[in-house]
Specification:
By secondary structure, this protein is an alpha+beta fold. The chain folds into two domains: about 100 residues, no CATH class; about 60 residues, Transcriptional Coactivator Pc4, Chain A (Transcriptional Co-activator pc4, Chain A, Roll). Helix content is about 55%, strand content about 20%. Strands 1-2-3-4-5 form a five-stranded antiparallel sheet. A hairpin with a 4-residue loop joins strand 2 and strand 3. About 5% of the residues are buried. The model has no long low-confidence stretch (mean pLDDT about 85).
Amino acid sequence: MDAATKEKVEETVLEVLRNADMEAMTEFKIRQIATEKLGIDLSEPSRKKFVRQIVEDFLAQQQQQQQHQQQQQQQNDAVSTGEVEEKQEEEDNNNDGREYDDDGDLIVCRLSDKRRVTIQDFRGRTLVSIREYYKKDGKYLPTSKGISLTTEQWSSFKKNFPAIREAIEKMEGR
């Protein structure tokens, strides 16, 4: 697709998304509506992938806006009841039960004494990191052994997890 066509497709898909009932809308329906409006077949794999990326970006943006609005509302509620300082103190004391490593990355789980799954911000991108660690001077530091997935890669992995599980079960059943 050329740049002008991509721009038209993106504008149309975003228009469909803004006017859609998100509880009933599916990616397939979005592609159908956009196909009818544009007269372009969007079921071809590369076009389908492009539409999927637009939809995922839109949903992520909507989720961020919703979270921001909720945080704003909570802050407004806290200000009106005079609880801002108390809430900040509580968060500082217990971090909502979350555990962070020495670099400030969220430790989601420990796979073993040397392996962890963490969520980190690297150059403005959120990464899911599955990595081995070593101890030096009382601190746990990451090794080069491991993998870091972008949120898109993580979404793809998560979506394909049932197929991965099924393949593992087949191999274990041999």
